Known about the structure:
It comes from Postechiella marina. This is GTP-binding protein. By secondary structure, the protein is α+β, with helices and mostly antiparallel strands. It contains four helices and five strands. The protein has a five-stranded antiparallel sheet with strand order 1-5-4-3-2. Helix 2 packs antiparallel against helix 3 (118-144). The longest helix has 30 residues, at 83-112.
Amino acid sequence: xxxxxxxxxxxxxxxxxxxxxxxxxxxxxxxxxxxxxxxxxxxxxxxxxxxxxxxxxxxxxxxxxxxxxxxxxxxxxxxxxxxxxxxxxxxxxxxxxxxxxxxxxxxxxxxxxxxxxxxxxxxxxxxxxxxxxxxxxxxxxxxxxxxxxxxxxxxxxxxxxxxxx
Length: 165
């Protein structure tokens, strides 16, 4: 979480534990605690806050556990917002990029025809400003959920060390 540019922080940890034991440990915590919602699908574990504690920017943690040998595995982690929120942001980025390209083509066409293209250049600059605003909105969302990300990290550390939650 130390990288300030990354909007969806990732981590990778090599563990000297059996993959199945680790997956079973997450299954066990699903039944024994109520602070987090833990869902497992094959080698993937999804951890998020209960609905009552969630807000628009609430993070979730996606873990993928890959077996290296019988007694070691690699834990890949990805912090991110709710997939619906992330999809919405990617959709907005796609729209802004598409409009930027369309306005650029329109400006080039007007320039080639030696017609005024001030409006098109203004729209291009506006798309750049919108993109920057989207980026900073995502950064603000990440910053507002930092304490929740730390709680998620503490939770998986407790599961990995088999501490009582």
